[in-house]
């Protein structure tokens, strides 16, 4: 096994390149901040075009995790990992265990979990070589599939967004477009249908849309959610859904979804604000998953974790209130709240206790 440390002006504390040729493992682990505690974030297994694309993704995702954990009130820093390759063809027990050895080598600075391309069963394999793993199966004392509370948190943020925009959190009769009905989008669709919303779904995978349509026959399927008149648009697939092409064409009053890194670049949040579209910041909205897996660190209790995820409703309202008070977009307000907590609480760790 070999590993190296990458350094450039990104604000990250540490970036580790991991390689184990016999298993085909190529991974990058990025730790943005440990100001509030160990850096917690999932492992994404994805066929990136090249290492540069993988690096860009892991740097953005790990920073997002630091802000997400801070805003969620967790005593955890932010990190993320990516494994380069198609999980359908290269994932193996040996590769996952090799990856676990690299995570273990960081001695608790980074705690991993599931993300795109990795699942509960994979975390159980990683844990055979590593102590710092969450998102494990219930049989192994874990929280199971974190998409359960991720989707629940998105639903709570939607209710808070609706209250801010329309004066009521009730989603009955509201037309909601869910872009991506994989792990999170599928569960979210169930919450919306139960709440009486009119749900429109889309996904690049025909199998995913068929599964959701079979479970919830009243939903409709669209190939163009951006151009569809909606009350709420919920991006729940990969990042960069909100960009220079999609935002001008978007026909929704609210954006509130589970995907990470929805804004393609700085300034997109201002463009949404100028168009009068209320944006619920992604790392605020999708924090239910990290709340769920972080509860494993205290001996998992689903009811306790769900209560914590319910607080996303109040946090979303607080972000909108600060945005209104300071005359800034909600994304800026969320950043300010997260940065304030990292600075104020993180500073306390410099106080020696023994």
TrEMBL record:
PROSITE patterns: GLFV_DEHYDROGENASE (PS00074). InterPro entries: Aminoacid_DH-like_N_sf, Glu/Leu/Phe/Val/Trp_DH, Glu/Leu/Phe/Val/Trp_DH_C, Glu/Leu/Phe/Val/Trp_DH_dimer, Glu/Leu/Phe/Val_DH_AS, Glu/Phe/Leu/Val/Trp_DH_bac/arc, NAD(P)-bd_dom_sf. Residues 144-350 form the Glutamate/phenylalanine/leucine/valine/L-tryptophan dehydrogenase C-terminal domain. CDD domains: NAD_bind_Leu_Phe_Val_DH (cd01075). SUPFAM superfamilies: Aminoacid dehydrogenase-like, N-terminal domain, NAD(P)-binding Rossmann-fold domains. Pfam families: ELFV_dehydrog, ELFV_dehydrog_N. Transmembrane segments: none annotated. Keywords: NAD, Oxidoreductase. Its EC number is 1.4.1.-. It is an enzyme of class 1 (oxidoreductase). One of its GO terms (molecular function) is oxidoreductase activity. PANTHER family: LEUCINE DEHYDROGENASE (PTHR42722), VALINE DEHYDROGENASE (PTHR42722:SF1). Belongs to the Glu/Leu/Phe/Val dehydrogenases family. This is Glu/Leu/Phe/Val dehydrogenase.
């Amino acid at each position: 096994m070999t590993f190296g440390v990458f350094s450039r002006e990104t604000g990250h504390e540490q970036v580790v390149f991991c390689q184990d040729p016999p298993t085909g493992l190529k991974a990058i682990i990025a730790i943005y901040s440990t100001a509030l505690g160990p850096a917690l974030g999932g492992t994404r297994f994805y066929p990136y075009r090249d290492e540069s694309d993988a690096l860009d993704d892991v740097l953005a995702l790990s920073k997002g995790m630091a802000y997400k954990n801070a805003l969620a009130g967790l005593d955890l820093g932010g990190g993320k990992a990516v494994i380069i390759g198609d999980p359908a063809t290269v994932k193996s027990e040996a590769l996952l265990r090799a990856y676990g050895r690299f995570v273990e080598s960081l001695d608790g600075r980074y705690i991993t979990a599931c993300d795109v391309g990795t699942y509960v069963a994979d975390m159980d394999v990683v844990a055979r070589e590593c102590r710092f793993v969450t998102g494990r199966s219930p049989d192994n004392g874990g929280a199971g599939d974190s998409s359960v509370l991720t989707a629940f948190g998105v639903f709570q943020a939607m209710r808070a967004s609706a209250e801010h925009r329309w004066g009521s959190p009730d989603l009955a009769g509201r037309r909601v477009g869910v872009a991506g009905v994989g792990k999170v989008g599928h569960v979210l669709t169930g919450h919306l249908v139960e709440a009486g919303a009119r749900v429109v779904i889309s996904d690049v995978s025909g199998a995913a849309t068929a599964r959701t349509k079979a479970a919830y026959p009243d939903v409709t399927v669209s190939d163009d959610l951006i151009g569809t008149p909606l009350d709420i648009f919920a991006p729940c697939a990969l990042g960069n859904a909100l960009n220079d092409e999609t935002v001008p064409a978007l026909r929704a009053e609210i954006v509130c979804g589970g995907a990470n890194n929805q804004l393609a670049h700085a300034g997109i949040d201002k463009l949404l604000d100028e168009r009068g579209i209320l944006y619920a910041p992604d790392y605020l909205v999708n924090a239910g998953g990290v709340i769920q897996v972080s509860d494993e660190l205290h001996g998992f209790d689903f009811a306790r974790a769900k209560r914590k995820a319910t607080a996303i409703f109040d946090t979303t309202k607080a972000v909108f209130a600060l945005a209104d008070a300071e005359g800034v977009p909600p994304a800026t307000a969320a950043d300010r709240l997260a940065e304030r907590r990292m600075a104020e609480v993180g500073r306390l760790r410099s106080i020696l206790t023994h």
